[in-house]
């Protein structure tokens, strides 16, 4: 027990004591943390069971890699409609009916996609749009719920542990896909995902039934920060320098990531076509080849991310703080794409994306969730949906424009696309530095009435 922890908060239950090996879990907190970690574990497992299916369905379409990139732009248009609708729904429904309705709708869609794919329908683009909305809205919804349960102090202690559930789910989902997609077929994985996602919804109801915000050990001890804007989700972001910086960071993260994904997808697609042309792969095996490659790729990425989440993230945030931790991923991206620009091979690009994605899914994801702790509840549910969905896809739109100009107009090489990402990573680093300073200002002792202290912001311990 640390000297600053009251004796009454010292873990006495075996579960609390075990979890304290990884984070500063206090008396009575372990059960809820474990259930939340399991909940997001199931959500990410379902997503990564479906993600190789997404790649297989869209990359077998003519112009698959370019089509995939352009589909991100269509997702942004779709989210521009869905985010305000979600905000209106969130303003009318309590959190349990809201989460039940949204998640049940996604579960119901999966059998429809399965039967359509089995019937030979071309559902690659439609499913790509659907899973893009799912991956953003459902995950953002979970973290909005988690932010609602904890104070900033408690969240900064416990979010790294909850996020480990997400990392482990990503690993498990990719593992399931890599081992079952060849035996069961691409479309059948959608039914597997439906069962897992339905299980996550059932678990959420168990968690919410036993946990009420005003009765939890993490119930807010002080008033929430005053809201900004007029309550409209977009206005909340536009009227806050802090939220605008978060939006700029997320925009650049996804611009760089998605451009890198295009480069990898293009190389893999050409590799599959070369195998078919050489006679070592049947023409109808192209989808399985691509799906298996991405399942194995996601498996490695998520395994490394899970290990980073468990052993490195909480320690890094504790010792260097949130502002410095925000700068790690842009530095990794800068170095990785610098190597890719020099050696633009499939093996190098794969490991460049592995390094970038593993840090993104562990450290960057956890720190990004911590950024919302010193915000109002309205910002957590409404503004967060804007930044975590529409802004993400806005970054993808910029990537789509980059891909269109680079591939169709300028005929850029892999090295030249990597150089674009180097330039973007430099801007990204500058935004991270500004956001880190704003975060430090919000959690300084002078603003303690509206945010945690700096020592609280760095209180995640191993």
Large-scale geometry: globular
**Gyration radius from CA atoms, angstroms:** 22 Å
Judging by the overall fold, what is the CATH architecture?
A: Up-down Bundle
Question: What is the highest CATH level, the class?
Answer: Mainly Alpha
* Strand composition percent: under 5%
Class by alpha and beta content: mainly alpha
The residue-averaged pLDDT reads 80
State the share of residues found in helices, binned by percent.
over 70%
Q: Can you say what the CATH homologous superfamily is? A: MFS general substrate transporter like domains
Number of strands: 0
Q: How far is it from the N-terminal to the C-terminal residue, by CA?
A: 12 Å
Low-confidence stretches: 1-8, 213-230, 448-462
- CATH fold-level label: Growth Hormone, Chain: A
- Overall number of structural domains: 1
- Alpha plus pi helix count: 15
Largest β-sheet summary? none
Question: N-to-C SSE series?
Answer: HHHHHHHHHHHHHHH
Tell me briefly what this model is:
With 462 residues, the protein is an all-alpha fold.
Keywords:
disordered N terminus, 462 residues, Growth Hormone, Chain: A, single chain, mainly alpha
Account of the 3D structure:
The chain contains 15 helices and no strands. By secondary structure, the chain is an all-alpha fold. It has one domain (26-216, 229-454): Growth Hormone, Chain: A. The longest helix is centred in the middle third of the chain and has 40 residues, at 286-325.
């Amino acid at each position: 027990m640390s000297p600053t922890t009251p004796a009454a908060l010292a873990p006495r239950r075996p579960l609390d004591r075990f979890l304290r090996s990884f984070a500063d879990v206090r008396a009575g907190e372990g059960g809820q943390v474990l259930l939340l970690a399991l909940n997001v574990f199931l959500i990410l497992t379902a997503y990564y069971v479906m993600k190789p299916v997404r790649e297989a369905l869209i990359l077998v379409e003519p112009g698959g890699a370019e089509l995939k990139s352009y589909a991100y732009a269509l997702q942004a248009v779709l989210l521009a409609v869905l985010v305000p609708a979600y905000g209106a729904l969130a303003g009318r429904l309590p959190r349990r009916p809201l989460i039940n309705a949204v998640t049940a709708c996604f579960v119901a869609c999966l059998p429809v996609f399965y039967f359509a794919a089995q019937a030979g329908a071309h559902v690659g683009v439609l499913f790509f749009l659907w899973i893009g909305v799912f991956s953003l809205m459902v995950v953002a919804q979970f973290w909005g719920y988690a932010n609602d349960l904890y104070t900033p102090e408690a969240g900064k202690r416990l979010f790294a542990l909850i996020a480990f559930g997400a990392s482990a789910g990503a690993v498990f989902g990719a593992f399931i896909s890599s081992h079952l997609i060849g035996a069961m077929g691409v479309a059948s994985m959608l039914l597997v995902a439906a069962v897992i996602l339905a299980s996550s919804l059932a678990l959420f109801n168990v968690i919410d039934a036993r946990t009420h915000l005003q009765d939890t050990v993490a119930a807010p001890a002080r008033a929430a920060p005053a809201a900004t804007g007029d309550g409209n989700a977009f206005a909340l972001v536009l009227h806050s320098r802090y939220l605008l910086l978060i939006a700029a960071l997320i925009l650049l993260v996804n611009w760089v990531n998605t451009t890198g994904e295009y480069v990898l997808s293009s190389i893999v697609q050409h590799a599959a076509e070369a195998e078919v042309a050489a006679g070592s792969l049947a023409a109808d095996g192209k989808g399985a080849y691509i799906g298996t490659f991405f399942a194995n790729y996601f498996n490695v990425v998520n395994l490394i991310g899970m290990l980073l989440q468990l052993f490195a993230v909480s320690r890094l945030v504790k010792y260097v703080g949130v502002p410095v931790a925000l700068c790690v991923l842009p530095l990794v991206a800068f170095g990785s794409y610098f190597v890719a620009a020099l050696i633009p091979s499939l093996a190098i690009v794969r490991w460049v994306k592995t390094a970038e994605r593993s840090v993104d899914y562990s450290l960057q994801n956890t720190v990004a969730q911590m950024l919302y702790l010193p915000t109002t509840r309205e910002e957590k549910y409404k503004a967060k949906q804007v930044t975590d969905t529409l802004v993400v896809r806005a970054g993808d739109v910029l990537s789509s424009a980059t891909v269109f100009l680079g591939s169709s107009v300028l005929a850029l090489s892999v090295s030249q696309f990597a150089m674009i990402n180097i330039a973007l990573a430099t801007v990204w680093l500058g935004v991270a530095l500004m956001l880190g300073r704003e975060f430090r200002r919000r959690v300084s002792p002078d603003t303690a009435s509206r945010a945690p202290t700096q020592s609280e912001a760095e209180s995640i311990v191993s």
